[in-house]
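Quick one:
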Amino acid sequence: MTVTEHPSIAGGQPRSGETRSLDGLTGVYLRGPGHVELVREMAKARRTKEPLVLAFVDVDGLKSINDSHGHAAGDRVLLDVADALKATLRAYDVIIRHGGDEFVCVIQGLTIAETEKRLSQVNRALAHGPEHGSVTIGVTQVKPDDSPEDLVARADAALYQKRQRQQD
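Output:
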């Protein structure tokens, strides 16, 4: 895979020689290489004192889509989510395929409210797709003593709190 195969890799252009760091389906960073980018962004935020927000994005009902319409339809939803994130975020924001149906977005210089407003566009974009996919998003901001794992865990917890509120 080459960078030219994924010309719009919002989520930070891969550094030279990192094209093997990209998910073949979505064109965003794989989890391991994405973790390296998260560490870099956290260090940069500490140096510059800029806010750093992490969004944990979970595709809603992907198993149901796979079961009802087949795995090709599920792959289309994952690609639609990645494309919507790329279109919504800036070229230097980092997008990571964290798991099967989960993405992590590392967003430098925006507040939580600004990030949530920007990411609300993702569900609007997905509503127009053939599978009418949706995502739930948990957002948190880096604290001075956070490890990358702390940050991801807090964003994941925020996602589950949001999902619980939606179900109530």
